[in-house]
Design brief:
heterodimer, A: 109 residues, alpha+beta, Glutaredoxin, four-stranded mixed sheet, 3 helices, 27% helix, 22% strand, globular, B: 495 residues, alpha/beta, Rossmann fold, 2 domains, nine-stranded mixed sheet, elongated
């Protein structure tokens, strides 16, 4: 079952709702920044959120109408949709500390 | 303003008409087509409304759908703006004439984690433009991005890229920017927008607010560098295109009756020149308004449209007063040949008055205009701006070949003292009314002080105003203000 946007399957482990992260990364084509962002994100998620995250990558070149909903103007933009509140950070995610602070990544309690 | 014609014909710059009254005139056809125009001004000066009007008219009148990227106002405000122009935003969106994308940029939401660009903005704009095949774009106000994004280097580079993108896609764009302290816009957008810059101004002096528009720059077009007053009213924005004109109006040789046969007699038997300006000055109660009303009444009888601007009395007052001198003006009002427009001179800025005047003249196209009185407009305490604007109004009337009459209240003394030279030089004809009391019997007198281009009688005549109307009496001999030597016997023998 192949999907256009890639999703990383989560492990079937018991995770508290408040610890589960649903992230959406907006890119515009396979530009160096976008590729870097995807790679950086994977790294950070595996390091800090192992087993309790889902990342959805949205390519606005293919689906421009999705830019409006999350008010995207910068590319790449990473949106934390869950847990609330919604948080948005822009850039290729190379500054790891900024990503952690920006997304407010909490360790598991 | 006249320049020597160049030997090589210059390609004319294509323009996108704005549909805003007066603005297309002062810009010589509209905004530069396929280019970016910068609209700058302080908060509340009318930038958003002007930009919106440009879009709405483009979509509705000129068949050019438009997209608005709105960075600041809420949907409510925008809908209200569009509604004020008489349109429904939702209807326009449904009929694919106008699309709005509300771009929210909030600083606290966004932290920057590395390299980025604003491709998302481009994608949204491109998507909207494609959806309705837009030809016009408004970015209002793009400076909001500066408060949202920390990295101004990236932002500036992207703005440059955005304006280039707009040109590449042949879109006529209007970008609004907040006025800066020392620069035209707070963040210096004028560096990137080279083709056309328009500045709006909203000043409050002595509790009266005036709005002005100035074309700071318009590449490829010779434009007036003056400030033009403009109004914002129920129909949107109207700019008064009064520019410093060369004295280029034609001299007409048609004549128009003064409304009083005896006065026509004094002016070569024919009356005023059509398109000329007539000043009627006199002290209080000498019959100036009656003369003006009479003039208007005779014009209406010839089926000529008249506009009467009243600065002192209400139209119903005027109608009542004129009834007492045998003038039935109501019938002309009913037939819409005579239109009154009354306003208090202190109600708004004088520029706004002149702007209203201009708008009404453009709307109704009268052949005769009366302004009664212009006293406040030409008072010695008036500023130079107002006087020069009056000059331009008179010029405008002449170019339109409208015969105009102005009444002016003077105080006892030489009429030339009461009326500044700035005004009298504008007037082609000058009729003076005054009281005198020869032998203790008070009466009114009229004489023609000047009338350019014709042989006119300078002899003073008695002005008789009764329920039968206005008539001129006998010629009075040897006239000076204080002493009149006519005695009853002389009067009898003159008859």
């Amino acid at each position: 079952m192949r999907k256009k946007s890639s999703t990383i399957k989560r492990r079937r482990a018991k995770v508290r709702r408040s610890d589960f992260y649903r992230l959406r990364l907006y890119i515009a084509g396979q530009t160096p920044n976008s590729i870097a962002a995807i790679a950086n994100l994977k790294q950070i998620c595996e390091a800090k959120l192992r087993g309790r995250y889902v990342v959805e990558v949205v390519d606005l070149l293919e689906k421009p109408q999705l830019a409006k909903g999350d008010q995207i103007i910068a590319i790449p933009t990473l949106v934390r949709r869950l847990p609330p509140p919604v948080k948005k950070i822009i850039g290729n995610l190379s500054k790891t500390e900024s990503v952690i602070v920006g997304l407010d990544l909490q360790p598991v309690r | 303003m006249t320049r020597a014609r160049p030997k090589v014909a210059r390609p004319s710059l294509a323009k996108a008409p704005t549909g805003i009254q007066g603005l297309d005139e002062v810009t010589g056809g509209g905004l530069p087509k396929g280019r970016v125009t910068l609209l700058c001004g302080s908060a509340g000066c009318g930038k958003s409304l002007l930009a919106m009007e440009f879009l709405v008219h483009g979509a509705v009148r000129y068949g050019e759908p438009g997209v608005c990227m709105d960075f600041e106002e809420t949907e409510e405000k925008l809908r209200a703006n569009v509604a004020s122009l008489g349109f429904d935003l939702r209807e326009l969106a449904k009929s694919k004439k106008l699309l709005v994308d509300y771009v929210a940029v909030e600083r606290h939401e966004i932290s920057e984690t590395g390299e980025y660009n604003l491709e998302g903005l481009f994608i949204r704009l491109g998507h909207a433009v494609k959806a309705i095949k837009a030809k016009r774009v408004v970015l209002d106000s793009i400076e909001a991005l500066f408060s949202g994004l920390a990295d101004s280097t990236i932002l500036r580079a992207e703005l440059r890229r955005l304006f280039q993108w707009l040109e590449d896609h042949k879109l006529t764009a209007v970008v609004t920017g907040e006025a800066g302290e020392h620069t035209l816009t707070r963040h210096g957008l004028e560096e990137y927008i080279a083709d056309c810059v328009i500045a709006l101004d909203h000043r409050v002096t002595e509790q009266i607010s005036t709005r002005r528009l100035r074309i700071v720059k318009y590449r490829g077009t010779s434009h007036g560098t003056d400030e033009y007053p403009f109004l914002i009213d129920r129909e949107g924005i109207s700019v008064v295109p009064l520019s410093s004109l060369a004295l280029a109006h034609k001299a007409l040789s048609d004549r128009v009756s003064t409304g009083i046969p005896a006065l026509d007699e004094m002016m070569e038997g024919k009356g005023f020149f059509r398109g000329s300006s007539v000043l009627v000055s006199g002290t209080a109660g000498t019959g100036k308004s009656s003369l003006a009303a009479n003039f208007v009444s005779s014009a209406c009888a010839r089926d000529e449209g008249c506009l009467y601007f009243a600065f002192e009395e209400s139209p119903s007052q005027i109608l009542r007063n004129m009834r007492s001198v045998g003038l039935n003006l109501e019938r002309w009002v009913r037939k819409r040949l005579l239109r009154f427009h009354a306003m208090r001179p202190t109600s708004t800025g004088l520029e706004a008055h002149l702007a209203s005047l201009h708008k009404l003249i453009a709307k109704h196209r009268p052949r005769i205009v009366v302004i009664d009185p212009i006293t406040n407009l030409v008072s010695p305490s008036g500023t130079y701006d107002v006087k020069s604007m009056l000059m331009r109004l008179v010029d405008f009337l002449k170019v339109q070949e409208i015969t105009s009459m102005f009444t002016n209240l003077t105080f006892a003394g030489d009429p030339q003292e009461g009326t500044g030279s700035a005004v009298s030089s504008l007037m082609d004809a000058w009729i003076v009314l005054r009281d005198s009391k020869p032998n203790g019997r008070p009466r009114r007198e009229l004489y023609v002080l000047k009338s350019r281009g014709m042989a006119h009688s300078r002899e003073p005549r008695e002005l008789i105003v009764s329920h039968r109307g206005i008539e001129l009496g006998i010629v009075l001999r040897d006239h000076t203000l204080d002493t009149t030597v006519t005695s009853p016997t002389a009067v009898a023998s003159a008859k």
